[in-house]
Amino acid sequence: MSKVAIVYHSGYGHTKKQAEAVQAGAASVAGASVELIAINAEGNITDADWATLDAADAIIFGSPTYMGTVSWQFKKFADASSKPWFGQKWKDKVGAAFTNSATMNGDKLSTLHYLFTLGMQHSMVWVGTGLMPANSKAAQRNDINFVGSFSGLMAQSPSDSSPEEGPLPGDLETAKLFGKRVVETAIRFKK
């Protein structure tokens, strides 16, 4: 069995929807146990959530991109993770990340770089999307990896969309494939 924890903050519900799609993809792998951990509006998680992260084989970080980086709530969580960092409790766990913003670019790569750096601080083993981009003339907005990210999962939700309207179906399908890849990597790495 592979234990996966998805720890994320969602300000308006779009990143939560993305996290749920990552969870669905991860849970589709036989032998996977996947838990969602929502960072609350004050930037906190429970002691039980910290224990879940410590016990996980893989941790997937998620945050919306606000002003070119993670939300302040996610940053508060990341700063609090210095306690497990000090004891290297997450060392050699598989790490991965996702983000969402209103624009197609929206400096999401900057957010993924922040999340990657957090994973490296914790001595984690990073997993990217492993997905080729939809970058031909025939590409459609709902194709897999239309946003074209390799280092982590990106999605786009229009600023005036509700969580029911965004992220779009192609981004959510990409999220499922990403979640599945992270679990499969964690299983291989555990052997």
TrEMBL record:
GO terms for cellular component: membrane. PROSITE patterns: FLAVODOXIN, FLAVODOXIN_LIKE. One of its GO terms (molecular function) is FMN binding. Coiled coil: none annotated. It holds the Pfam family FMN_red. The keyword Metal-binding does not apply. The keyword Flavoprotein applies. SUPFAM superfamilies: Flavoproteins. Its cofactor is FMN. Residues 4-183 form the Flavodoxin-like domain. Keywords: Flavoprotein, FMN. Gene3D superfamilies: 3.40.50.360. InterPro entries: Flavodoxin/NO_synth, Flavodoxin_CS, Flavoprotein-like_sf, FMN_Rdtase-like_dom. This is Flavoprotein WrbA. It comes from Herbaspirillum robiniae. The lineage of its organism: Bacteria, Pseudomonadati, Pseudomonadota, Betaproteobacteria, Burkholderiales.
